[in-house]
Every structure is written in structure tokens, then in C-alpha cells.
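Technical annex B. To support the medicinal chemistry partners, we prepared a structural model of the target in complex with DLZ, based solely on the information shown next.
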Amino acid sequence: MIKGITLVRPASSPVIYDALVSFFSALGFEEGRSWEDDKSRGRPFVAPLGNLEFVDGMQRGETDTFIEVTQLDSVRQVVERWLAAHLNKAEAAKRISPTAETQWRSRVFSVEPVAGVSYAFWEWMEPLHGKPMALAGDLSAEGMKFAIVVARWNAVITDRLLEGALDCLYRSGARKDEVHIIRVPGAWEIPSAARKIAETKLVDAVITLGVLLRGETAHYEAIYNEVSRGIGQSQQETGIPHAFGVLTCETLEQALDRAGLKSGNKGFEAASAAIEMVSLHRKLGAPPAEKVEVGQ
Ligand code: DLZ
């Protein structure tokens, strides 16, 4: 059974290796397992889909690496920022081509992060190839402001949820100074803090993180109902998306599993939902958060 294809790209020097690793890391590729031995080292970058394609009729010198993306303009911004940080202005401008339409109903631009090594980034102009288009939020957090309201109760778990949420936000392009963490004693206090911050309209979304353990919480159902109702109500009445990352578990072990040990990290998932909802609100025409900094 064929499982995958690895296209090995030898770097012609350690400096070029480091530049390419930095470039692909900046683009948000999932990093595979790096390796190193006495003579060489490698850093895989993994994409959800890949194929080996033979083409007849390509021009010599054309790039042989085509990276399909879903938000070409956002990718271009990331690429331009990376070039600006690593090259002078004139050189950076020379290394990136204009975005152009192709005859195969796509848009493409190419870039040389290091001289002579070029990559093409492209997206379908009709991603669904004629099927009805659904409106959906994107997963880029650039230019978005977030508040994370996190309960200290069961901190061993909520700290992991917080780590997961931050990991998602930063990897999706959020700036550290635009993510504000608000700690509250327990899940009970989450709705009130979430509402207070949402009412200021200084953030684009609120991410709520907590853990309620059935076995150890008297009146568990009542508390849970009130917490979820309060978060939902705050979302509806303020118009600011609230991601629900309050775990309800039977045991501590189950909660640990959901906080990154076995079945994903619900903090990461909540942050991802928040990003998507902010993007969707923007597409639907909701007013952006005011451009005022939230106090630390
Ligand atoms: C009191 C309490 C209990 C028993 N269990 C939990 C829990 O499992 N998870 C949680 O986040 N908080 C718990 N709390 C604390 C309440 O949420 C609240 O902070 C206190 O009752 C003070 O208002």
C-alpha cells in the first residue's frame, strides 16, 4: 500500500537550510519530526494532501513545487512580511511575482525565499468547482483581538487548555499583545467575566476555558446549566463570538484526555472556533472591534 511521498530538497548550505526552515515555519506548515546525524539533518514540513505530478511541456527553470492554499492573499501577506524581515526592500520586491490568473482557473504567485529556490503558491478561483459555495469563516487570526477567560479551579487541566488555545491563536497569526488572559476562580465566574470584557467591545472574540468534574461538584447540573447559559447569553446579547471551552467530565482522567493527553486539546479547538467565528462575522458584515488596547 502506498502511504505517502517525500520530496527531498537538498539545501546547498546550512544558511540556506535555516532560511528555508524559517520561511516554511512562518507559513504555518505542520512540522514533521526533525532528524539529525553526524553528517546531515532534515526538517520535514507536512501538508494534508500531496501528489507527485508529471508534466509535459513545462518551461525549463519553472518551479517544481506548487503549494495549494485556501487564502492566497493572506499567504501572500505572510510571505511579504517574511521577505521584508530577511531582505532589503528592493531585493524583497524582486523575489516575489505578482499574483496572476492561470488558464486553469486558479491564481498563483511565486517566491524565492532564497535566491534560485522558488515556490509557487496557488488557489482555485472556484474552490468547489461549480458546486454551491458555502460561506464560512477562515482560520487566519491576523489582526484579531481575543480575550481568554480561564478558570483556576482544576488548574492542572485548565492550564493545558490555555496552552492549547494560545498555541492555536499564535500559530494562526494572532499577535501576543492582542491576546488577553483573564483568570477567574472557577467555572461559575466565567460568564460574568466573559460578559464584562465582551461588553467593552475591545476584543473580537472571547474564549472561555474551564473544567467541571461531575464526581466532585455538588449541584453539578445546576452549575453547568448556569455556566453554559451565561456564556451563551453573553454571546447573544453582546454580539461578540464566545467559544465554549468548558469541559464537563466524569473524572479528572477524562478531563486530562480532552486537554491534550489523548483526544485533542479542547482549548485549541475552542480557539479555532473563535477565529472562524470572527472571520465569519466579518464576512457577514458585523462591525469590527474598536481599535483600543485592552489594559493588561
Ligand atoms: C465549588 C466548585 C466545585 C465544587 N467544583 C468546581 C469544578 O469542578 N470546576 C470549577 O471550575 N469550579 C468548581 N467550583 C468553584 C465554582 O466554580 C466557584 O468558583 C466557587 O463556587 C466560588 O463562586
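Notes passed to the chemistry partners:
The pocket of DLZ is lined by residues 151, 153-154, 185-189, 210-213, 216-218 (CB under 6 Å).
The mean pLDDT is 89.
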